[in-house]
């Protein structure tokens, strides 16, 4: 995709991918299997969401023995912080 910002917003538009981001933010790293155990979706769905997030530059993977562990990239962590700030702002200013 030639629009990196559009790709990031496209990835973050899906609530399930935001759940993955939130989980990785809180946990640090996780395998797709670990995410499947914590989130209400299949392993195949988790793998697709992780691929979309990786394509947008928000998560990265590292092979550790037989496991592939995923973590937020620096850009992903920044977006997680920005979304938290936006959520707090909207909550405070809700009428």
Q: What is the gist of this entry?
A:
The protein is 64% helix and 16% strand.
Task: Give structural notes.
A 3-stranded antiparallel β-sheet has the order 1-3-2. It contains 5 helices and 3 strands, in the order ααβααββα. It has 95 residues and is α+β, with helices and mostly antiparallel strands. It has one domain (4-92): Arc Repressor Mutant, subunit A (Orthogonal Bundle). The mean pLDDT is 90.
For the structure shown, list the relevant keywords.
Arc Repressor Mutant, subunit A, 3 strands, 3-stranded antiparallel beta sheet, alpha+beta, globular, 95 residues
Q: Ends: how far apart?
A: 38 Å
Could you tell me the number of beta strands? 3
Shape: globular
Average pLDDT rating: 90
Q: How much of the polypeptide forms β-strand, as a percent range?
A: 15-25%
Question: Helix- and strand-based class?
Answer: alpha+beta
């Amino acid at each position: 995709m030639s629009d990196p910002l559009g790709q990031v917003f496209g990835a973050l538009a899906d609530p399930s991918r935001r759940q993955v981001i939130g989980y990785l933010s809180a946990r640090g790293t996780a395998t797709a299997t670990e995410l499947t155990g914590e989130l209400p979706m299949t392993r195949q769905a988790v793998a697709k969401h992780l691929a979309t997030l990786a394509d947008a530059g928000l998560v990265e993977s590292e092979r550790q023995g037989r496991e592939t562990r995923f973590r937020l990239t620096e850009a992903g962590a920044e977006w997680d912080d920005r979304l938290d700030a936006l959520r707090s702002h909207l909550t405070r200013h809700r009428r």
